[in-house]
Design brief:
about 375 residues, alpha/beta, Rna Polymerase Sigma Factor, Chain: A, seven-stranded parallel beta sheet, four-stranded mixed beta sheet, about 45% helix, binds nicotinamide-adenine-dinucleotide, binds magnesium ion
Length: about 375
Amino acid sequence: MRVSVFGATGSIGESTFDLLARRDDIETVALTGGRNVERLAAQARTLRAQIVVTAHDACYAALKDALAGSGIEVAAGTQALIDAAERRADWVMSAIVGAAGLAPGFRALAQGATLALANKESLVTAGPLLMREAARHGARILPVDSEHSAVFQALVGEDAAAVERVIITASGGPFRDWTLAQLARATLAQAQTHPNWAMGQRITIDSATLFNKALEVIETREYFGFEPAQIEVVVHPQSIIHALVGFRDGALMAHLGPPDMRHAIGYALNWPDRADLPVARLDLAQLAELTFEAPDPVRFPALRLAREVMEMRGHAGAAFNAAKEVALDEFIAGRLRFLDMAQLVERTIDQLSTDSCLTDPVEALETVEAMDQMARECARAIASRVA
Ligand code: NAD
Ligand code: MG
């Protein structure tokens, strides 16, 4: 099987690498990363990739040096990422973080590849476009988010029309039981420490604000086509049940597993088969207790914002995601406080909603990218007034 991994040096990328390195039937086409060229080069040598791409032109020389004598092609920059996505592959992992992951995944669909989609931003910003592109080229998108992989697995052999509701779980993040006063003072160090999952910095902070869950509610809607009212979120601090699907007869099918993304990645890699995976097996007696609580909309407004965005449809998802990415940049840079992130996103959407193109249907990558840019500029302008 020919595989490519976009975002190979990240958290999902490393877990994917771990699974690929265990197999002997893999032909690696492209691996991409950012500034971590040493690691990218080491992965490329192990998997004997055809081509490696760093997203940054400035890292080209270092990557070239690191691969000297290997015979592996080296390239750099945004266009090189897209070109790499156009190389024929059977299975493509989309694990770049943020809206930057959209274009390479989109291109991979156009050549009919199976897209293992960890980059949830692709569905949030351009869901209808991505699903149409997959259908047009006979390509398949397989979800690589623990909740969505769980829903996907719970639906195997079921009639989608018999689904009443879907429940995705949220750990609640590090601030689950913090008061508003405490949240107002939450630091970057505290926000980037997740109680259960080891993930990249950005998604970890998004888990603390519940923006990650907000993106995932939209992702559920776009991927599976459920109505917003059918999609529920429950806080489950142990992160053992990833999602549940409720059927019209009242049955709830739950998917359980340890918090290890190699399950969802491996499921997408082996689909439609199941194969041995190096994930821990659950000891339920030792876990003893699984608990649940309703998310608090006052301390964590992100879920309410996601509902509003789903009502608006069109390019609202792209604006929401872009504003959230700016808010995150500002928080990481120390220019915004924790609670200001949701406020910045809300104010950006409010401001853009006076402009009709926010709700225009998503028909082309270009309009999504234009809305992304417009929302970033709008959010930065608001942020500079707040700071
Ligand atoms: P990460 O920050 O650990 O890794 C991101 C990867 O993308 C790195 O290889 C980095 O070099 C590359 N990258 C970053 N910015 C880029 C840009 N502008 N252009 C090109 N490449 C760029 O992120 P992660 O935690 O692995 O998450 C990746 C994606 O998977 C995200 O969309 C995230 O929401 C999703 N996801 C992650 C997890 C998880 O457990 N980490 C779970 C579910 C979904
Ligand atoms: Mg998830």
